[in-house]
């Protein structure tokens, strides 16, 4: 499920994070404190990254409805819902990047205007998911 290169990828990622973080921590604290911090970060990072993948918890009602209503198209249904979820997550990530960039700039309240559209989309998806859950659970 995770592929043969998953564990080496996790180990490489942890090493990169430790190489990046060690000089920054060592400047502020003693080298023993920095090593202990890196060890704890590595342990926690390894444990977090090696857990099973998380499943998206939104739009599951609609996915299950289409799976049971059209049993011949379960693969297509999964593909379409996974694409929708990926687009949603990527949009939120890009929007968060833009909002944080505007917050760091010296332009004052511009970030509030930039944040309104992503918040409306998050609210709309949440309302749609809730309505799907009400309709599908009531019909089932």
Automatic annotation (TrEMBL):
The chain crosses the membrane at residues 6-22, 34-59, 79-100, 121-139. Keywords: Membrane, Transmembrane, Transmembrane helix. The keyword Membrane applies. This is Uncharacterized protein. It comes from Acaryochloris thomasi RCC1774. The lineage of its organism: Bacteria, Bacillati, Cyanobacteriota, Cyanophyceae, Acaryochloridales.
């Amino acid at each position: 499920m995770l592929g043969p290169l998953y564990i080496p990828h996790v180990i490489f990622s942890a090493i990169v994070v430790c190489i990046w973080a060690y000089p920054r921590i060592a400047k502020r604290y003693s080298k023993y404190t920095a090593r202990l911090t890196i060890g704890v970060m590595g342990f926690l990072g390894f444990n977090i990254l090696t857990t099973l993948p998380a499943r998206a918890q939104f739009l599951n009602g609609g996915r299950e409805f289409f799976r049971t209503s059209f049993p011949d198209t379960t693969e297509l249904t999964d593909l379409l819902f996974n694409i929708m979820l990926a687009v949603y997550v990527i949009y939120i990530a890009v929007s968060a990047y833009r909002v944080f960039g505007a917050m760091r700039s010296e332009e004052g309240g511009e970030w509030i205007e930039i944040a309104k559209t992503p918040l409306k989309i998050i609210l709309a998806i949440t309302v749609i998911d809730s309505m799907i859950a009400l309709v599908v659970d009531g019909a089932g």
